[in-house]
Amino acid sequence: MNGRGQVALLGFAIGIIIFLLGMSFINPLKDVLDETRAADQLDCANTSISDGQKMTCLVTDAFLPYFILAVLAVGGAWVTTRVI
Description:
This protein is mainly alpha-helical. 80% of the residues lie in helices and 0% in strands. The chain has helices at residues 3-24, 26-37, 51-83. The longest helix is centred in the last third of the chain and has 33 residues, at 51-83. It starts with a helix and ends with a helix. The relative contact order is 0.19.
């Protein structure tokens, strides 16, 4: 195997490791977000909260999908830079 193939294979392996490490953080992160949204914290289930609390609840809800997209982007970028 030539040097370029070894670099591509190593880059692919590191990209997969980045992806797996990022995905391993999802369950603890989801637990923290659920605790944050609970009635004793932000109380997102309450309809009479202020607009600022509603916005904070929306940002908290949107964090997990953006985290997943960021992990995919970083892992994909690592693989792309090593292969190309």
